Each structure stands twice: as structure tokens, then as C-alpha cells.
Amino acid sequence: MPAARRTVDGYLRAPFPWYGLDEAFTGPRWLMQVGTAADGTVQHGATGHGEEPTTRPEVAGPERGRFAVVVTVAANPVRRSGDGTGVLDATTASSAAWLAGSGLLAYTWPAQLDHALRSEWLDQQTETAFELADDLDGPAWTTLSLPVDGVPRPFHYRESEFGWVLAGSTTAGVHLGAYGRGMSAYGLGFSVIADIAAYA
User: Fold this and answer.
1) CA distance linking residue 187 with residue 106, whole number of Å
2) SS3 content of the chain, % helix, strand, coil (to 5)
3) N or C end of the chain, less CB within 10 A?
């Protein structure tokens, strides 16, 4: 994996707590990457759990990994645009759902697609993921309750042929998204990561 993906520096600059699977998960944990605003402020990021997914075309089906990725998104009611001249939409659980949905697609495109078709497929599916994330109360989503820091919280949840996606909010000033494959979402729990460096 690229060294930039592994660095913990971006995570340490975040002004909000990072979340991962709680202590009930005993498998491997690993860093992914953070997303920043134009001024370098960390706005979101992801941590991985289980077998790191692969997009190698020769690896297909269940062999492509059993994993769950947790996306933490800072809850910003008002965000300035990169040039400072405007205001962006507030981050919500839909923001977390969009990041989780697009993240799942990045690791689950059909292995048999050639390069040209893959780009078209990703564009199409990414647009669909955006529309779904914008309608969390729509028929594509169900609800389930999962523990966050030991307290049950409601989440929006959907499954597809590629895996599952869920999204919700916490009382700690962040929204949570998650996506995965091969691991049941129904048995997951989330908690603040005490030492993000342990994921590196």
C-alpha cells in the first residue's frame, strides 16, 4: 500500500474523535486515508477492519476480502467554501452515507469489466450512491440499532450485490458511515479509537 495511505499524521490533526469497531472485533485494524478542506482542515477519514480489500481483477468473489470500513465525518453545521466566498451544505448522516457508498464501490467493481467500461460503471454507480445517500428516509434504506460507545443508536442501512452500507450520527460531534462485505453489519458496534496510531 502507498506510504501516504498509511501515515497517521492526518488523523492526528483532526479536531474530532475517530471511530472504529469496538473491542468485540479482534481482527486486524488498518488506516485508510483522510479527506481535507481547501485550507487543510481534516473533515473526514476512514479506518479499516478485517482483510484489506483488493481490486485486483484476478481476485473475485468471496476471495476479495471480508472487511468493514468505518467512516468518521466531522459534524459541521456551516462550512465555508474553499475560496472563502460562500457557505457549503452542513455535514449530515447523508454525508457519511455518500462517503461510505462511494468507498464500497471503489473496492467492489465487477472484476470482469475492462478499463473503459469500468470507468463508465463507476460513474453510473457513484451517481446512484449519491442519490441514495440524499434520501435516507427512502425505500432503499431500512433502520437498525447498533451500539455506539455502548449506547444503542439508530442507523440507516442498505444492502446491495456489492456489500452493505450504513450511516448514522453520534452524540460526540461526528457522523458515522460504514461499509463492508463478508462481515455482517448486524453484529457490529462502534467506539471512539483511544489510540489511532495503533491502526498504523
Assistant:
1) 24
2) 25, 35, 40
3) N
Q: How many domains does the chain have?
A: 1
pLDDT-wise least confident of 74-78, 79-83, 146-150: 79-83
- Give the global pTM: 0.86
Rounded CA-CA distance 55/60 in Å is: 9
The three grid cell numbers given for residue 91, joined into one nine-digit string: 455535514
Going by their DSSP bridges, the two strands 42-50 and 163-169 should be labelled as: unpaired
Q: State CA 141 to chain mean position distance.
A: 16
Structural domain boundaries enclosing 7 = 3-199
For residue 80, CA distances in Å to 91, 94, 99 come to 12, 19, 20
- Give me the phi and psi of 196, to 5 degrees please: -65, -25
Give the separation between CA 150 and CA 164, rounded to whole angstroms: 22
Cα–Cα distance between 25 and 14 in angstroms, integer? Answer: 24
Q: Determine the pLDDT at residue 81.
A: 46
Which burial class, exposed, middle or buried, applies to 172 when counting CB atoms under 10 A from its CB (0-12, 13-18, 19+)? middle
- pLDDT of 88 higher than 50: no
